[in-house]
Design a protein that fits this description.
Length: about 170
């Protein structure tokens, strides 16, 4: 049941990311809602759930939007593991910390994506891409995290979401 809920979240995220946020008037910047979901699940459900969600959500984005298969999947998987480890070690309850953490992880993901593009031979002005693309996207993602983290935190308190994947196999 937990897997179905996460699959539904990922499907809803794809709809919101592709059909709603492109029409919200913030010039040239869209928030990374999948990052918000992955970080929120990392804080509330642990690194395994967040890594699983990041892996499959990133694969879905790679397949739908033409990225090299696995590029986003790896970045979101790493983000899920980092968020889960931070959630377990820091025991964060503060929404502003969650927003800041999502913004920092989003910035790291964007920078790694830009570096991957440079390694692949794509030429673009790096400083401009950082200042006009990566940084505003990270800040917007941190702001949207406020809207995403509250309902996911409430959802994580349900008994179905509290079960670990290892317990489901028994």
């Amino acid at each position: 049941m937990k897997g179905l809920i996460i699959a539904g979240l990922l499907l809803l995220n794809i709809v919101v990311q592709t059909m709603i946020f492109p029409y919200i008037p913030v010039p040239g910047v869209e928030p990374d809602t999948l990052m918000c979901i992955v970080v929120s699940l990392g804080f509330t459900n642990g690194y395994f759930t967040a890594a699983f969600t990041g892996l499959f959500g990133g694969l879905a984005f790679d397949m739908l939007f033409g990225w090299p298969l696995g590029a986003n999947a790896l970045l979101y998987l790493l983000a899920g593991v980092l968020a889960g480890m931070a959630g377990e070690r820091l025991r964060v309850e503060n929404y502003l910390f969650a927003c800041g953490f999502a913004a920092v992880i989003s910035l790291v993901k964007e920078v790694l994506g830009l570096m991957t593009a440079l390694i692949a031979g794509v030429h673009f002005p790096l400083v401009r891409a950082l200042l006009l693309g990566a940084l505003p996207t990270a800040l917007y993602t941190g702001a949207v995290m406020l809207l995403v983290h509250w309902p996911l935190r409430r959802l994580s308190r349900c008994s179905v979401m509290r079960r670990r994947y290892q317990q489901m196999l028994d």
